[in-house]
Amino acid sequence: MSLQKLKNAPLKEVIFELHWQQTIELSGFPSDPGFEFAVGRFAEILKPDFPVHRKLPVADAPIKFIGVPLHQYWKGEMTYPVIQHGQCMLAVNEVEHGYIWSESFRPLILDSINKLMQSYEGTLNFNKVILKYIDAVDLDEISPHDFISQNLQTRILNDYPIAGKFLDTQLVQAFELEDSSIMRLSIATGKNNKTQKKVVIWTTEVEKNKSLNLDEIYWWIDHAHTHTSDMFKRMLNPEYYASLDR
After folding, report:
1. Disulfide: which of 124, 162, 172, 183 matches 20 by Cβ 3.0-4.6 Å?
2. For 16-35, what is the mean pLDDT?
3. What would the pLDDT profile of 180-238 be if each residue is shown by its tens digit?
4. Same structural domain for residues 243 and 136?
């Protein structure tokens, strides 16, 4: 999340989403009228760099789903990054192993948008953008609440007798940024099904709901990244942050 990639970053996944205006059919149902043509064209343009195409089961459902992935394009067999395309939506997903903002992820976002626009015959009226980071840490000796308090500098307290043994918690906060984007921060506890260890997961997300042209989207991408990066560095205890780079 820093400008220089941390050696032991807790990043699990970073997701960019771009949405555009839907059309209401005579039947009253929403649709993306250029989608059926664009999906084949998009697959062809992506194929040299993303040769593995997976059609998700929901794509064959009788109901037209808007704003959810219907097709995935993988770098290799289940190998990230992955580009996802659905009616009125595009998503770009990457994991920690391949993530470097300036060298890989940001250029991939811009390239994906460019190829998406090449695939549609008509104009896309973009109206929502999202940038989301998901971080998680398995815990050994320390309790989830102590980890959150000490390392994420956030205290979750109950000033009354609780009903029973503590299991899990979730905290969600929302902040309005200067450009009217909404930043959401969530902290949750649970169990890692692979390691069976307790885990703390925190998600930092910035979302903008507004009609946007390409120049505004390009500006917003950097704007959202700056805010998510700053939030990550501010919320982490400086000693813990330094330990992630050793």
Report:
1. 124
2. 91
3. 999 999 999 999 999 999 999 999 999 999 999 999 999 999 999 999 999 999 999 99
4. yes
Q: Does any domain span residue 217? A: no
- 221 occurs within a structural domain: no
Query: What pLDDT is recorded for position 4?
Result: 63
The answer to whether the pTM exceeds 0.90 is: yes
Domain coverage including residue 23: 7-124
CA-based nearest residue to 143, from 120, 163, 169: 169
* Structure tokens belonging to residue 20: 């555009």
